[in-house]
Amino acid sequence: MALDLSGSDLVVAVFGAGTMGRGIAQVCAQAGLTTLMFDSREGAVKDALAAIDRGLEGLVSKGRMAVSARQAVFERLKPIRSFDEAKGAGVAIEAIVEDLDAKRQLFRELEKRMAPDAVLATNTSSLSVTAIAAGCARPHRVGGLHFFNPPPLMRLVEVIGGLRSDPALVETLLGFVKRINKQPVLAADTPGFVVNHAGRAYGPEALRIVAQGIANPREVDLLMKEAAGFRMGPFELLDLVGSDVAHAVMVSIFEQYFGEPMYQPSAQMAARVAGGLLGRKSKQGFYNYDGPPAMDFPTVDVQAQTVPAYAWIAEEDGGRELAGWLKAAGIEVQLGGKPAGGVPCFVTPLGEDASNAAVRLGLDPACTVAVDMFGRFEGRRTLMKTPLTKADIVGAAVTALSAGNVPVTVINDSPGFVVQRLLAMIVNIGTRIAELRIATPSDIDTAVELGLNYPKGPLALGDALGVASVLAVLDGMHAITLDPKYRATTWLRRRARLGVSLRMPD
To answer: Which of 166, 177, 238 has the alpha carbon at shortest distance from 205?
Structure first.
């Protein structure tokens, strides 16, 4: 399957002129390759060329592309009206509807017409490359090139070899991705590949948090952006992607992994899809996009109180740092020992809820609040109450934590708060991808950073948070909920015990 990628005479044929197909064609043409465009729908290629032209004109108007370069790119885009016109292409990229039968039919037609050493690649995001190739007489020549939307802006391309793909074909595809100035990541032919698999933590766990009444969507989004440093909150992201698309992916991966609890979909998403609350595309989702915003009441009603004169703090993970925060607010603190009656008692659990921490430490749950010190995030603080915490204790604790105008979000009792739960699940699923040998540790992090725009890849994130701390969060959540969804992977547990990086290969 050797293909010379060095010559300027390489021709690429893109089949499908929808959003992905035209984006892929633009990428190839901008890389200097003659690019053929085909679509079975009359007028689709013409519409695609017009859309590409508008995009290029935008680059010119912003000074990011010369007029001559724009003209050269457009001249390399050539519409074709039949499969036979693509017979001289060295690479064919399929970007049609996500339907197995349709893709198989297309590849059967292409392999009849194209040269024996031409590469056939599918842009599927959810189907098995092996299953698509099985419809061909020569499945060894079929591989996967999963681009991300929009292709001209997204640097990542997942390269997938099917079970019957020629190993040399995979190397050819890796070289081709570099040739078109994109970053390749090699992934095994498994449900979701790397990026869609890794995404099973952020949205699904956020949905579960809201369904359990722990926080509302806006509160979760603010915590993940301002405390954890994500560019978008999970509910903003679900509205951007579309609830229909996001839910379909959740269900598909859950079913393809035969009901693995770690990927459990959300029942509330099914209801939202049925009700047409799809997000930006329908102008209403978790947020309103047409008219005034929806009323957003806090999950916990906080009554303003004065700064307490005295507070007790558990001498556990993060306790000493929390003591420093409260001292800076002018509060006298007691670190450990037996607290005096009626004073606010602060605990800093990992993976544990405030109620369990209060009982374990022999505290009065009516006076107990928990502060999330996981990661020592400063942008926004989380305060968690027990079901019995008195309103004046909550208000006094919020006032204390707000010193210096730091925003505070108050949530209901939950093993793992909000940020702990989401970050620990992101790390855990990342280690599962490594454990299943779907991609190398470095490629997993690269794929997630580029494909999902997370601040760090899941393995690097786990290292930064502390592998032992991540394990403590997962074990704490699992012990309280008894939910197998939160069981830590062997990959994570082993490296925590050894005290080594999650990126350490076997």
So the answer is: 238
Q: Are residues 51 and 67 in the same domain?
A: yes
CB atoms within 10 A of CB 185: 27
> Which residue in this structure is represented by tokens 């951007």?
240
Coil/strand/helix, residue 289: coil
Q: What is the pLDDT of residues 385-410, one digit of tens each?
A: 999 999 999 999 999 999 888 999 99
Encode pLDDT of 359-371 as tens digits: 999 999 999 999 9
E strands within 31-182? 34-38, 77-79, 91-94, 119-122, 142-147, 156-161
Say whether both 84 and 151 belong to one domain: yes
Q: How far apart are CA 256 and CA 191, in angstroms?
A: 6
Give 164-202 as a DSSP string: TS-HHHHHHHHHHHHHTT-EEEEEES-TTTTHHHHTTTH
Q: Is the peptide bond before 441 cis (omega within 30 degrees of 0)?
A: no
CB 14 within 8 A of CB 37: yes
Predicted local distance difference test score (pLDDT) of residue 376: 86
Same domain, 92 and 182: yes
CB-based contacts of 256, cutoff 8 Å, min separation 6: 191, 192
How many helices (H) and strands (E) the chain has is answered by 20, 14
Examine the fold and report which residue of 189, 205, 226 is the final residue of a domain before the chain moves on: 189
Positions annotated as catalytic residues are 125, 146, 158, 196
Query: Residue 212's domain is classified under what CATH number?
Result: 1.10.1040.50
The residue out of 411, 439, 471 marking a domain boundary is 411
Q: Is the pLDDT of residue 2 over 80?
A: no
Burial class (CB in 10 A: 0-12, 13-18, 19+), 2: exposed
Q: Look up the domain containing 396 and give its range.
A: 310-411
Q: What is the pLDDT of residues 123-153, one digit of tens each?
A: 999 899 999 999 999 999 999 999 999 999 9
Select from 106, 113, 112 the least CA-distant residue to 85: 113
144 with 213, same domain: the answer is no
Backbone CA torsion sign across 350, 355, 359, 362: positive
Q: What is the largest CA-CA distance in the chain?
A: 85
